[in-house]
Design brief:
heterodimer; A: 96 residues; mainly alpha; Cytochrome Bc1 Complex, Chain D, domain 2; B: alpha/beta; FAD/NAD(P)-binding domain; 2 domains; five-stranded parallel beta sheet; four-stranded parallel beta sheet; globular; binds flavin-adenine dinucleotide; FlavoCytC_S_DH_flav-bd (chain B); FAD/NAD-binding_dom (chain B)
Chain lengths: 96, 426
């Protein structure tokens, strides 16, 4: 939660210095990469945008600790701390 | 760096204001003209970056300079070579990008003056920038392998830039008699798409097995190990037993010269006369990077991994295949992830703020057969001037996965290409 607030604060600093739309608040570290595979329209790979942040967070944490199987996401989630996962989940929830 | 940018930006605004005052017909908007970012190279890196910049800050003046009206994507071009896919599925245009408010310039950038911050275009005109992003991809080194020059490539295709070369290799495979030998010559690291040659070998083997079953494929490699090696080799054993021979560097795999007239490949130990020779030569950053002064002795571009800014020339950022990214492979996925990181950094720098240290992801899928996919993934963060692997994360698909997992990864691979194609060009 602390990290989340910090990253939102950084977002606000950037936003006030340059006209950034709220919808495009700078993504927290790692989150910008998600859209390489995940799209609102994709069929095989799930849409991850605009969902409940807690649900996304617990899915990512389950990938991270191996309790939920996946082909690739288990390997990727291990690269992020709990705080980072919280920030990513919160940011994804604000995206369309 | 930030400080410097701030000053120069102020200087620029002061100069613009002075110009306004001295011009009778000055427009008041000139004094507050938006920051100009020019992106050179409309591939996975450059086109992604141009879009990400406008998304983060719609007031930015973003220009995308790219050589051609059409972009032909390399990912999945190995399926075109194997006859399983139309080249049209690889082709993208820039109309939607231009419709999003990005100025599109379809020309070669020929010169860069980092002091004046100008770019010289092929038609003689000039573009000015506050920040420049280079994503020129690779140039093939036609001076690195004796016998292999640009003319040789029309006999021994590299097919490492997609388009006519892809189709040439496909036609050669179609024209080959059953029982022929196909060779793939692979360079030493670093090169574009580390698993690409082995995916290509797999899909060509699939074509040969189904259409020309008495044929063979030989890989002449300048390395002793390759990406996803154990997965590839296990799958070759299972799907194409006896068809693919991999000759490693230590077994005499390094090709030291070629003769296009006789389709001959020479190593220190043997001379291979083959029916189809796919020669992937050594590579370096696209030429404009050298012109800009951002390449080092290796021919690639050292960068600060937080901002993707060149360590050699201020205000020029290098992304994609051209940059030295440490553990991140030269892939379309990496280029796209770097592009978005670079865009965030540029928006911060233009606002006088320090860019946030990023984390980036890469996932490279390879098809071993049309319904058999494998992957390698990584998560990276800046360390010692490079992108370093985050320990404990990433890695390849499991060696012992059942076939339905391989089938699923093949579906995910196709889905990835559709998604990234739409994100970048759609
Ligand atoms: C066979 C093969 C398979 C591959 N498969 C995959 C895969 O499955 N997954 C994956 O992630 N990656 C894959 N790749 C790698 C991927 O294609 C590259 O990593 C990616 O294209 C790099 O993007 P880039 O923006 O750096 O360069 P490019 O995509 O090459 O774009 C550079 C663009 O800049 C233009 N340009 C260059 N110089 C100038 C100039 N001076 N002025 C104007 N325009 C200029 C070029 O014409 C080109 O359009 C594969 C590559 C190959 C060869």
């Amino acid at each position: 939660m602390k990290t989340l607030r910090t990253s939102l604060a950084i977002g606000l600093i950037v936003a006030s210095a340059a006209p950034v739309r709220a919808a495009s608040a700078p993504p927290p570290p790692g989150a910008a990469s998600c859209s390489g595979c995940h799209a609102a329209t994709s069929q095989a790979i799930p849409n991850i945008y605009g969902r409940d942040a807690d649900a996304t967070r617990s899915t990512l944490l389950a990938f991270r600790n191996g309790s939920m199987p996946a082909t690739v996401m288990t390997r990727i989630a291990k690269g992020f701390s709990e705080d980072e996962i919280g920030s990513i989940a919160a940011w994804l929830a604000t995206q369309k | 760096m930030t400080q410097k940018n701030h000053t120069s930006r102020r200087e620029f605004l002061r100069a613009a204001a002075a110009a306004t005052a001295s011009l009778a017909l000055a427009s008041p908007s000139l004094a507050q003209s938006p920051a100009r970012v020019v992106v050179i190279g409309g591939g996975f890196g450059g086109a992604s970056c141009a879009r990400a910049l406008r998304q983060l800050d719609p007031s930015l003046d973003v220009t995308l300079v790219t050589a051609d009206r059409q972009y032909v994507a390399c990912p999945f071009s190995n399926e075109v070579i194997a006859g399983d896919r139309a080249i049209e599925a690889q082709q993208f245009t820039y109309e939607k990008i231009a419709a999003g408010g990005i100025k599109l310039v379809t020309q070669m950038a020929q010169t860069i003056d980092p002091q004046a911050r100008t770019i010289g275009l092929a038609d003689g005109s000039t573009l000015r920038y506050d920040r420049l992003v280079l994503s020129p991809g690779i140039d093939l080194r036609f001076d690195a392998l004796p016998g292999y020059d640009e003319a040789a490539a029309s006999r021994m295709p590299h097919a490492w830039k997609a388009g006519e070369q892809t189709l040439l290799l496909r036609r050669q495979l179609e024209a080959m008699d059953d029982g022929g030998v196909v060779a793939i010559v692979v360079p030493a690291n670093p090169f574009r798409c580390p698993p690409g040659p082995y995916e290509r070998a797999s899909l060509i083997a699939h074509y040969l097995k189904t259409r020309k079953p008495r044929s063979k494929l030989i890989i002449l490699d300048s390395k002793d190990a390759f990406s996803k090696q154990r997965l590839f080799q296990a799958a070759w054993q299972e799907l194409y037993p006896g068809l693919i021979e991999w000759v490693a560097l230590s077994q005499g795999g390094k090709v030291t010269s070629v003769d296009p007239a006789s389709n001959t490949l020479v190593t220190d130990f043997a001379t291979h006369q083959v029916q189809v020779a796919n020669v992937i030569p050594p590579q370096r950053a696209g030429r404009i990077a050298e012109i800009a002064g951002v390449t080092d002795k290796s021919g690639w571009c050292p960068i600060n991994p937080v901002s993707l800014e060149s360590t050699q020339v201020p205000n020029i950022h290098v992304i994609g295949d051209a940059c030295i990214a440490g553990a991140m492979p030269k892939s379309a996925f990496s280029a796209n992830a770097q592009a978005k990181t670079c865009a965030s950094a540029i928006v911060a720098l233009l606002a006088g703020a320090a860019p946030t240290p990023p984390k980036l992801i890469n996932t490279c899928y390879s098809l071993v057969a049309p319904d058999y996919g494998i992957s390698i993934a990584g998560v990276y963060q800046p360390r010692n001037g490079l992108f370093a692997d985050i320990e404990g994360a990433g890695g390849t698909s499991p060696l012992d996965a059942p076939r339905d997992v391989r089938a699923r990864e093949a579906i995910y691979a196709r889905s990835w290409f559709e998604t990234i194609g739409a994100e970048v060009f759609g």
